[in-house]
Amino acid sequence: MAQNECPSVAELLNGVKSLTRQNDGTFQTAWSDSFPDAYHCCEQGGFIYVDFPVPSTVTRAWVTRAPKGVTMNQRTTGPNAAIDLNNPGIQMNNVILAANFHTHPLSSSVGGDPQPSRADMTNAYARGMPGIVVSRDGIYSYGPERRENTSNPKGYPEPVTPPSVPRSTLAKRQPPPWVVSNQWPEGTGVAIAHAFVENEATADANASGPDVIYVEWSDEGVVYGEPLIESED
N or C: which end of the chain has fewer CB atoms below 10 A? Predict the structure, then answer.
């Protein structure tokens, strides 16, 4: 990765280990938060920042969380899921937004799609920003490979032209995320014992300290454009 070039999603996943860690990992925490009880779920997500100027190798990140999406019944087919990622921000300086992320917690059995939606794809290019979806499949990346423009560093840069056929990439096959107790149907009923035995076998309790720091959200120094429609379709 060239000096001052923002990391791609693959480089973030390889360099910042706590993003994909099981114990208190960024994506695992968002996945767990997506299931407040055994009957409901909501999309969770946020914004991943790195040092600015960007070092030659990115090994740490700062994360702010977005407000949770609308709460849905995870056991029945219902309205489209969504989360508002229009307002990145962070209460610190000398960082640049490198990607946003959100979960897709609905099971395909009730109409959920583990892959980035058309709205996700469209918005990623409109924001000039790589996106990450955390789902039962694993970790998807979509949109531009990396942020190319460093203007408005704590917010979104200028839009970039999308390809004729936008595609997503399964950057890391599941896990993460690991099954959580309120996740229907895998974390409830007969499936739960097997799921958590697998979790125990892949636990990383002896891993090194976190390289992701959570920071309070702030709109200071951020320029916002017109909000984009986030509806999943």
Answer: C
Interatomic CA distance for residues 48 and 166, integer angstroms? 22
How far is it, in rounded angstroms, from Cα 111 to Cα 133?
A: 16
- At residue 102, what is the residue type? H
The string of pLDDT tens digits covering residues 42-59 is: 999 999 999 999 999 999
Number of helices and strands (H, E) in the chain? 4, 9
Name the strand (E) or helix (H) holding 27: helix 26-33
Contact between 148 and 125 (Cβ < 8 Å): no
Joined together, the tokens standing for residue 42 give: 């909501």
Q: Are 106 and 75 in contact (CB under 8 A)?
A: no
Distance set, CA 96 to CA 67, 107, 148 (Å) = 20, 34, 11
CA 180 from chain center: how many Å? 17
Q: How many CB atoms lie within 10 A of CB 202?
A: 10
Each residue of 143-174: pLDDT tens digit? 999 999 999 999 999 999 999 999 999 999 99
Closest CA to 63 of 87, 34, 9, 99: 99
Strand order from edge to edge, sheet including 138-142: 169-173, 138-142, 131-135, 95-103, 45-51, 61-65, 212-214
Span between the terminal Cα atoms of the chain, in Å: 34
- What is the C-alpha to C-alpha distance for residues 53 and 34, in angstroms, rounded to an integer? 33
